[in-house]
Design a protein that fits this description.
The chain contains twelve helices and ten strands. By secondary structure, the protein is of the alpha/beta class. The chain has two domains: about 230 residues, TIM Barrel (Alpha-Beta Barrel); about 55 residues. An eight-stranded parallel sheet has the order 6-5-4-3-2-1-8-7. Strand 4, helix 4 and strand 5 form a beta-alpha-beta unit. Helix 11 packs across helix 12. The two termini are about 20 Å apart.
């Protein structure tokens, strides 16, 4: 079943008060972060915050960003935070297909320990380096048993650091990586990816909106956010407009009527309508329905 992810809000795992506030926002997904947002001295103690808040807010879509494979914290992160109510993990520093097989083995062990059905915990690989972008199709098309990867997320801060380039307001430096990530997800038949947070100027809402629009145009379904003020603009950008919903309903209705009469290509208000256009219209209506159910 598709998951509504227009916005996914990061919150530091070592700050229970901020985690509590995050669940009061309109973000579609809450990400409790055990990696970059948590100092080394608090990584182990932060896991209890995850367990407490997941139990408290199990009705919400909750992801945990663990530490990377090969770190001294990954086993503890999984053993102590994979509990009922966690929907998936964001795995940082993924660069090759073998990383997916390795994390799948660890997740199977954690699920078994917690008596959680196999495959419950989804994987959201974080693509944040040149190697990850280069190998992204191999990563997203990796077959595991059970199936784990829902989609990937893009981390532009580490990607640009790895490339030795600067993030800009215009975002031209991210065009290739974003395009390759979105194409890889589509080619592999998984859900559209989630875009990088906008971090250049947290007070510049117009720049955030422009950045989100660029990602949407390239095939991303939503955006990672790092401040509650970013949620409403991004939810709006990644939601269909009322006129889009209205037109989608017209297209589906007109096409179904013409198809019943034996015609599979029509014109509607000057637009050429065939099966791909109808599929797009149905996707818009499905997204609108998911948003309406949440609200």
């Amino acid at each position: 079943m598709p998951i509504l992810i227009r916005t996914a809000l990061f919150v530091p795992g070592n700050m229970p008060d901020r985690i509590e506030k995050a669940f009061g926002t309109e973000a579609d997904v809450i990400i409790i972060d055990l990696e970059d947002a948590v100092p080394l001295s608090e990584k182990e103690s932060s896991r209890s915050n995850v367990r407490e808040k997941v139990t408290q807010f199990a009705h919400r879509m909750i992801l945990v960003r663990t530490n990377a494979l090969g770190s001294p914290f990954i086993n503890g992160d999984l053993n102590e935070t994979i509990i009922e109510g966690v929907n998936g993990i964001i795995l940082p520093k993924v660069e090759k297909a073998d990383d997916i097989h390795d994390i799948n083995k660890l997740l199977l062990e954690a699920e078994k320990t917690r008596s959680i059905p196999e495959g419950t915990i989804l994987i959201f690989p974080l693509i944040e380096s040149a190697a990850a972008v280069q190998h992204v199709y191999d990563i997203v098309s990796t077959k595991t048993k059970p199936k784990r990867i829902y989609t990937v997320m893009f981390g532009a801060a580490d990607y640009t650091l790895d490339m030795g380039i600067e993030m800009t307001m215009e975002g031209n430096e991210l065009f290739y990586a974003r395009s390759k990530i979105a194409i890889a997800c589509r080619a592999a038949g998984i859900a559209p990816p989630i875009d990088t947070p906008f971090m250049i100027d947290l007070k510049n809402t117009e720049a955030l909106i422009s950045d989100a629009k660029r990602a949407k145009e390239l095939g991303f379904q939503g955006k990672l956010v790092i401040h509650p003020d970013q949620i409403e603009p991004c939810n709006r950008i990644f939601s269909p407009l009322p006129e889009e919903i209205k037109m989608a309903k017209k297209i589906v209705k007109a096409f179904e009527e013409s198809e019943a009469a034996g015609v599979a290509a029509i014109q509607l208000e000057g637009k050429f309508i065939d099966y791909p256009v109808v599929k797009r219209s149905k996707d818009i209506l499905a997204l609108a329905t998911a948003i309406a159910k949440k609200e």
